[in-house]
Amino acid sequence: MLIAEQSRRGRPTVLYGILAKTALSQLEGPSEAKGRPAYFQNLIRLLDLYRLDTLHRPTPKAVLDRRRTASNNIRRDKIEADAVQAALAHAHKAVFNDLSKEQVVECLTAVFSKLGQGRDAELASDDLQTAKRFLIELTQALKNA
Amino acid sequence: MLAPSEYRLQECENVRNLLRDTLRYAYFSKSSKDVYAECLDRLQLIENAFNILEEDNEDILEEMSNQLSDLSELIGRVERSRIEEFSWPFALALQNLALRICTKGQPGGDPAPRFFISADDELNSYQIITEQNAAGFISSPLFNIIFPRSLKNFVLLHPILGHELGHAAISAPQHSRLLSDEVLTPLAHKSPLQDLTRFQSWLDKIDADLDIDEQTKAVSAWQEELYCDIFGLLLMGPSYVGASTSLLRPFKTRAASDSHPPSVTRFWIINKVITALGWREQLRKHKQLRSATDRYFDSLSKLAANVPRKYRLLNETQILAAMERLQSFLADISGALCPMPDLVQVAAMRRRMLAGCPPVASEVTRSLKISNSNVDFRSVLFAGWITWMSEERPATDLTFIKLNMLCQRGILQQNAVDVWKTHERKQGP
Asked: Cβ contacts (< 8 Å) between A42 and chain B: which residues?
């Protein structure tokens, strides 16, 4: 194997940081840019994981797969999931303060949906700024994780 | 020497070529074209991200490299989804079920999952990989049903995929909370799976070798696995019993891993649910099915009766409560809850197979009037198992593979009848 197995396992903290940063950069470009809907749709799915508390859900193995997962990988996956959860909670608190998780996700999903469809003009300026702030806070928190 | 960014961009080009190479094979439906387009979209999303990211950030470069590598691996699976690689009549029937389950209650704007079915070289690779709850470089989530290549024609073993559809259902955001709160939690209530402390005390009794990280993971993973068995049983019907016991028994049945509970625990739970459903009593009402039905269900009940008490992990009342909730969940999705197989139909299919004929056939009168009966593919599978268990079968030349091929033909015939009926409805009287 060319590289260590640890390097081959994805790191959600880095991946979601890239997603948030790419989505932010999309907001600077034309609203009809190709790929824009996908970046925001993925962020909506990430918010769903946060809303449903399923960031820690183990990925099921094939029904007949009996191979054990190395303990350090189980630990690493948990640390990563904890860090993503904390970063989302940090961005939530920083932008929405005491609003409930359900309300935050509902609000951001509505805004991200419109941004994904290039319907920026339909958004109130406050909503757009809120979405941007959330993405900036999330990117930073994931970078620090 | 290539700079990291030059190397990655070259890799993107290489992956694009790999994707182009997949076009040399024939695939089985329009969804293959969708999956091809999805792979192209993902490559574009990755390339877009490469263009805006800092070139000297090693964490980012490594993650992007992983994403590209995952895409390459996915393309490999797409190539293994060509038409000769798996039983496509069964796959089509399963895909229809999966589509109903995963799109039920989905918010209007969400993209529907794109299905593809592939074969894998590993002998134990029955799996469904679903991305409905995944975030990454995804344009539309994919839903990949994987069959072991060596068992491609063994449709009587394929009902095990009902278990995998349970994982898919609970990972769908619109079902996740309901299934978690109303099925998983009650299922684990008053059992060692309720929390880590109880689980650790139980592990001491069976002398299992799981460290603390594995134990923590096992509590939630096992809850989901046991729920999936009940889900598979309700979805696929009585043929799930034959498939799951045949496939699980060759492994150490008392071994526990971080991902799966001991198989003996699963046999015991499956038997509890089967008993509560009353399938055996119903099916043995038909004289021609009685002895084969008894032998079929006896093989499970004997396994279950021998399960030591300490492996009977869940509370019986809680199993039944979870089963009832799942029944009503599936009943709300058109065609998902497996209907009780029609006894007369099963008996007729058994007779045909013992005579070496496919179980389903069209009737043609002297005046060339064609009539077809509606047969659920899950009834065909159960009829296959009952034929295998029939006293008369050893006297015929029906081997297990021949029987599987006959059932596969029956499902294919039924698919054709369904397509014809849809066509007739569209044409009108």
From this structure: 135-138
Sequence-distant (≥ 6) Cβ neighbours of residue B168 within 8 angstroms: B98, B101, B102, B128, B130, B132, B143
- Please state which of the ranges A27-36, B67-76, B232-241 shows the lowest mean pLDDT: A27-36
Ordered by start, the domain boundaries in chain B are: 4-152, 164-331, 343-427
| Mean pLDDT computed over every residue of chain A | 89
- Please tell me the pTM assigned to this model: 0.92
Helix (H) or strand (E) holding B80: none
A61/B259 Cβ within 8 A: yes
- For chain A, give the DSSP string: --S-HHHHS--HHHHHHHHHHHHHHHHHS-TT-TTHHHHHHHHHHHHHHHHTT-TTPPPPPPTT--PPPPHHHHHHHHHHHHHHHHHHHHHHHHHHTT--HHHHHHHHHHHHHHHHTT-GGGS-HHHHHHHHHHHHHHHHHHHH-
Cβ contact B181:B114 at 8 Å: no
Q: A40 is written with which tokens? A: 């925001």
Report residue B40 as tokens: 């192209």
Residue A18 with chain B: CB contacts under 8 Å: 49, 53, 60, 63-64
The Cα B187–Cα B156 span in angstroms is 28
Res A7 pLDDT > 60? no
Longest dimension (CA), chain B: 79
Distance from C-alpha of B242 to C-alpha of B26, rounded to nearest angstrom: 33
Burial of residue B294 (CB within 10 Å: 0-12, 13-18, 19+) is middle
What is the Cα–Cα distance from B176 to B170, expressed in whole angstroms? 5
CA-CA distance, B349 to B1, in Å (whole number)? Answer: 67
d(CA B43, CA B61): 15
| ipTM metric | 0.89
Decide: B28 and B119 in contact? Cβ < 8 Å.
no
Q: Is the dihedral of CA B405, B410, B414, B417 positive or negative?
A: positive
Phi, psi of B412 (to 5 degrees): -60, -45
Per-residue pLDDT tens for B46-81?
998 888 877 778 888 889 989 999 999 999 888 888
Interface of B with A in 42-71 (CB under 8 A): 44-45, 48-49, 52-53, 59-60, 62-64, 66-67, 69-70
Q: Which residues contact A111 (CB under 8 A, 6 or more apart)?
A: A123, A127, A128, A130, A131
Kind and range of the H or E element at B184? none
Longest dimension (CA), chain A: 53
